[in-house]
Amino acid sequence: MSSETPRTAAPGGVERLRRRIAEWDVWSLPRRLRLPVLLVEATALLLVVALIPDAAPTASDLWLVLALCGAALAHTEIAVRVERARRRVHEDLHVDLTSVWTFAAAVLLPPAVAAGAAALVHSYVWWRAWRPRVPLYRQLFSTATVVLASLAAAGVIEAVGDRAPMIGGPPDLLAVALALLVYTTVNSCLVAGAIAMSVPQAGLGRLFGHWDDNALEIATLSLGGLTAVALSINPWLAAYVLPPILVLHRAVLVRQLEEAANTDAKTGLLNAAAWHAMAERELRRGRRADGPRGVLVLDLDHFKDVNDAHGHVVGDRVLAAVADELRSEVREGDLAGRFGGEEFVVLVGGPDRNAGAELEAVAERIRRRVAALQVVVPTPDGPLTVSGLTVSVGGAVASAVAGGDLQSLLQVADAALYAAKRAGRNRVRMGVAMPMQSSPRDDGQGVLPIGAPEQPRRVEPPAAAR
């Protein structure tokens, strides 16, 4: 009996192992993304293994590893609550503050040793602060990009500068600067490549982060370079790096909280209050620069039918998909927001000539995008595809509206939106401001959408018309 037990248990163990492997989150990635991710991870592993025979760390290298990893782990433990809050606020972070330590290791240590230290630090931060919000397959890819960036930066130091016994002099400082550029380029391009594979129409802001993100990355790496210079003098100086990086960590959290307060949770666009404030500022700036601005107000047609037929969860997915199409069509400098419900608004900048025609062209492109949209939502009964969506759009150009203030623009655009609704929906209408005699009961705006019947004041249709 005992001799037969392993024979019967082995197939069951193999089957359990097969099922566990099949449940890995990495298989949920699109096929076009799965192979590049695994290739980056395999490349990082093979390079480290190939460089291990040439590593031969010295006693001073080991002291530096101990100082760097000790400071990095202390940084992680002190800032663990802040880092968890960062992940709760914004799960897709472009800037990882552990690069202070990983870049310093790349400057001071042989490539394979630097890569090992980077993997240790990055994995420890994931273990303490990022689980379970960051799946293991994403962490492995992120660690692989950091390892490859560290290898590239360490290679620059060995080719151009000198790692020991002390960093000093123009050649070494130039090598650190070049290594910084190589590090951020390799890491950013690998991450951007993965995003581009998963989101084919992603803009530069989605791929490489905003200017603030990149400035923060350069500042963090610069602090890592200063850390390397300090540690080359005395490893105990790592303790003096902790206060500034902890303050920077908290400052970054404050900025992320401000961004979250300005963001609509369902769509990722600006919320109504934030859009109003930013749009007012942009209009004032535009008046000083004689630059026209236009406003588009968009409303999904019969959106209540989607919620009634499929539920609010599906409706939220539809809103997010429409917001993605909106982001894909407007430019980086335009302001897109959600006013609430199924209504969106965009402040569009444009050239002085043909501003109205260009604003209408943008609105038409958005309308066609929404009409062609197919939103696939996973459900317990299988994927559900929501299609046949339409949007009505009203627009107004600042140069055509008396005063050109935001309230007037919104009134004109909203009147044009109702004109589009009355015309049958799934249409674009541009509004104009007609001069009108003011009266005690009239605000003097004289809002009249193109194609609407002449009347002293706009009469809004009942709510059911929306």
- N- to C-terminal distance: 76 Å
Number of strands: 8
* Arithmetic mean of pLDDT: 80
Classification by helices and strands = alpha+beta
Pfam families: GGDEF
Transmembrane segments: 37-56, 100-127, 139-161, 173-198, 218-242
Region (Disordered): 435-466
Protein name: GGDEF domain-containing protein
What does this entry look like structurally?
- Strand 6, helix 16 and strand 7 form a beta-alpha-beta unit.
- This protein has 2 domains: 234 residues, no CATH class; 194 residues, Alpha-Beta Plaits (2-Layer Sandwich), CATH 3.30.70.270.
- It is globular.
- It is built from 16 helices and 8 strands.
- Helix 6 runs antiparallel to helix 7.
- The chain starts with a helix and ends in a 17-residue tail after the last strand.
- By secondary structure, it is of the alpha+beta class.
- The strands form 2 sheets. It has a 6-stranded mixed β-sheet, sandwiched between helices. Strands 4-5 form a two-stranded antiparallel ribbon.
- The longest helix is centred in the middle third of the chain and has 29 residues.
- InterPro entries: Diguanylate_Cyclase, GGDEF_dom, Nucleotide_cyclase, Rev_trsase/Diguanyl_cyclase.
- This is GGDEF domain-containing protein.
- Keywords: Membrane, Transmembrane, Transmembrane helix.
Present the secondary structure layout.
Layout: H1 5-22, H2 31-51, H3 59-78, H4 80-89, H5 99-108, H6 111-130, H7 136-160, H8 170-198, H9 204-208, H10 211-233, H11 242-261, H12 272-288, E1 293-300, H13 303-310, H14 312-329, E2 335-340, E3 343-349, H15 355-371, E4 375-377, E5 384-386, E6 391-397, H16 406-422, E7 428-433, E8 447-449
Helix pairs in contact: 2-6, 2-7, 2-8, 3-5, 3-6, 4-6, 4-11, 5-6, 5-7, 5-10, 6-7, 7-8, 8-10, 13-14, 14-15
Domain GGDEF: 291-433
Region (Disordered): 435-466
InterPro entries: Diguanylate_Cyclase, GGDEF_dom, Nucleotide_cyclase, Rev_trsase/Diguanyl_cyclase
